[in-house]
């Protein structure tokens, strides 16, 4: 199979019929993170950004993507807890599980900070890390049983997680109206 650019495809996301070479897939993820950055405002040279470094594919991909995207801005990107701006390793899988848990009244904590990875799946982060030869461990971010349920559903219906995350505003409004 071939990527749209003509190169040999190496990445085959379940949620789309498109296939990607490593270069095009990396550009796709960069584009998604850039879109999230634009939604939340831009970063300046004075900013110190801390990326959650939990060793997971999401944390490692987030760190690498931000360094790539923001290298021209000149802001400092660190790991740990010494920055003014915190970016958690919180992918679309976790965001969808959080929203469903919240609606079902199940306790699930969402980390504070700027969530830039909510349009990227854990499997996308794992593929990105493999493309760039970044080491990670298989820590999965999810909200317990809700995350497991969504994982099973998304195996059958791959677009489920993205649909839930895109419907976030509508779901939150519905939840607010139906909570007594």
Notable features of this structure?
Rossmann fold, 7 helices
In short:
The protein has 180 residues and is mainly alpha-helical. Helices cover 47% and strands 6% of the residues. Helix 2 (57-69) links the parallel strand 1 and strand 2 (76-79).
Structure commentary:
The radius of gyration is 17 Å and the shape is globular. Helix content is 47%, strand content 6%. The chain has a single domain (22-177), classed as HUPs (Rossmann fold), CATH 3.40.50.620. It is mainly alpha-helical and 180 residues long. The mean pLDDT is 87. It has 7 helices and 3 strands; from the N terminus they run αβαββααααα. Helix 2 links the parallel strand 1 and strand 2.
Largest sheet: 3 strands, parallel
On the 0 to 100 scale, the average pLDDT is: 87
Instruction: Assign an overall shape.
Output: globular
Task: Specify the oligomeric state.
Answer: single chain
Helix content: 40-55%
CATH homologous superfamily grouping = HUPs
CATH architecture: 3-Layer(aba) Sandwich
- CATH class descriptor name: Alpha Beta
Q: Which strand order does the major sheet show?
A: 2-1-3
Q: What percent of residues are in strands?
A: 5-15%
Rg (CA only): 17 Å
CATH topology: Rossmann fold
Q: What's the total count of β strands?
A: 3
Low-pLDDT parts are none
**Gap between N and C termini, in Å?**
53 Å
- SSE sequence, one letter per element: HEHEEHHHHH
What is the number of helices? 7
Structural class: mainly alpha
Give the tally of structural domains.
Answer: 1
